[in-house]
Q: What sequence folds into this?
């Protein structure tokens, strides 16, 4: 019996919900972040689907995309199923302008590079981490903090926060990072505080329970630092189930916010934003 497109989509949605349920485990959350870091242009739902089907995936594309890249999917390989939007063009009754809206989703197949043969892909440029590279990353992140109207300082932590590596103070709109951190740790801490600045403004409904804010900020920092080639092996992302309390909708929402925020920073994180910090 042939499975209809609707049935395939429903099966994929069931698989997505099962994948989200597994993310209550902190080890699984970190494993998903590793996949999301590789596929940060995909939606949170599709990165969860890729992770649940092939956790070691490194580069996925559709059948025809691989052919255009000079590679061929091997006969008999089973595709990874993800959700692709189905769009339609509609006309605004008032303005007459046309726009595209999403009508639903359908199941489509993509394949990991390990399922293909052919020409090697172009080498990605290596991110230099020697010397001052982590310091330059911190400076670039600091510029994005300043762009949000915050003062960024490196120095002593404010009273009552002596053990913290960094602090975002919404009252004074100041971000402080400890002066005695290594360049790499300072970059990681700055990424964490940038996530707070972008996600957790208490005046706009962005303030969630503290444990949620911390795992979101730390997850964004994990993605940013990994994207920039910084070692993130010593990250501690906490026990996801502790704040999610089994609420799969909350986990999915956090996954979406984390990936959207990291994606927006990666898009802006270019050498052109560098200045002194």
A:
């Amino acid at each position: 019996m042939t499975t209809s497109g609707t049935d395939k989509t429903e099966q994929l949605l069931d698989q997505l919900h099962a994948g989200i349920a597994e993310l209550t485990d902190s080890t699984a959350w970190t494993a998903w972040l590793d996949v999301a870091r590789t596929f940060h242009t995909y939606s949170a739902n599709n990165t969860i689907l890729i992770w649940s089907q092939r956790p070691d995936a490194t580069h996925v594309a559709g059948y025809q995309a691989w052919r255009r890249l000079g590679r061929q999917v091997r006969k008999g390989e089973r595709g990874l199923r993800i959700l692709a939007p189905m769009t339609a063009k509609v006309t605004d009754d008032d303005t007459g302008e046309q726009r595209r809206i999403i009508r639903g989703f359908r199941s489509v197949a993509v394949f990991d590079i390990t399922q293909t043969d052919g020409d090697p892909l172009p080498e990605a440029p290596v991110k230099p981490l020697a010397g001052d590279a982590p310091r330059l990353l911190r400076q670039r992140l600091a510029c994005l903090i300043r762009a949000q109207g915050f003062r960024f300082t490196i120095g002593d932590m404010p009273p009552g926060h002596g053990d913290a590596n960094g602090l975002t103070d919404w009252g004074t709109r100041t971000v402080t990072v400890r002066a005695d951190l290594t360049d790499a740790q300072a970059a990681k801490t700055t990424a964490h505080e940038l996530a707070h600045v972008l996600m957790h403004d208490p005046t706009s409904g962005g303030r969630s329970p503290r444990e949620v804010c911390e795992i979101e900020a730390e997850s964004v920092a994990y993605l940013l630092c990994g994207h920039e080639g910084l070692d993130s092996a010593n990250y501690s992302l906490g026990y996801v189930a502790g704040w999610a309390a089994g609420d799969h909708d909350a986990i999915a929402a956090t996954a979406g916010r984390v990936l959207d925020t990291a994606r927006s920073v990666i898009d802006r994180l270019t050498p052109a934003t560098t200045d002194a910090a």
Summary: Residues 272-277 have pLDDT under 50 and may be disordered. The two ends are 64 Å apart (CA to CA). The longest helix spans residues 248-268. The chain is about 45% helix and 20% strand.
